[in-house]
Protein 1
Amino acid sequence: MTDSRLTPDQAELVKVARATFVEELLPLLPADKRLTGLMVANALAIALRMIEHPQGDEGGVPELCAEIRAGGHDEDDAGRLRAHLIKRTLARLALSNPKQLAQAELALTGDGRS
């Protein structure tokens, strides 16, 4: 859950920490630790995107699951559930792996637009 009290200063701290790690420490890691270092750099990049673009509380998943199990979306001719799930998936992908976002939009929506 993202803390709404985060400030640009905190985002800047994560940005500087990641840049310092990537530019100064990652090159010093032995080859057998490089993958671990890249994972740390990636985690910092994800944390920075989460700070810069908070998605708010992603609650409602248990309730949505209960609705689906109860048949609440069985007659969803308009595809509202599918559209909701695609939107949610793309929002999460934008944080975790934005390089894949355009390709995923095309695959999920068929035209690259959500």
Note: Residues 60-114 form one domain.
Protein 2
Amino acid sequence: MLYELPKQLISAAMAHLNFVLIHPFKDGNGRMARIIQSLALARKSEVAPVFMGIEEYLGRRTQPYYDVLAKVGQNDYSKADYDSELARPWLRFMLTAHLNQALEIRHRIASAGKAAQEMEKLVERSGLPERVEQALYGAMFGNTVTRARYMDALEEAGEPVSEQTASRDLGALAKQGLLIANGDKRDRSYAPGESIKAASREAGLGYKWRDIDPFEVK
């Protein structure tokens, strides 16, 4: 149940903390601790694991992560004071991480929906077949588009095309300025055109992460 979620977040965070501070291995302790935390959340929560993980947040906050570990572990866990209150900064850090990661995911989902709508409008105005949306969708997220990636995306969508058709589609998108071709014919790739970039910005994709501290006293 969702009302059990805060308890689960704290339990998983403490599993992470205890493992990484015991430091049983010569290398890979942090990585294993994060896996243990994710596993604890996946096993006990009804929320999908993809919405529970904070790997991306921690990857963007490496130094603060190490700083709070040093503070809580007092730089030597084997001799540290075992006062439970010392875990408070760690739990605040982890709960803040979960909040900001959740906000980021919510923003991405909302932005992806807006981007899809804008993409459909662009394709409709272009007069090209609907399948080219697969190419533009990747470009809206700033990804480089290649023929191989376009074909893979269409195959996953259940609409496979030949190399000739894929090349023709991408060429048509480039001709209309939706994509910009780079490289020679053999190794050609495509970057988003100005109209795609504008639609991406309008949808709110690619914004900088915000840091919201739920424990900040105002």
Note: The radius of gyration is 23 Å.
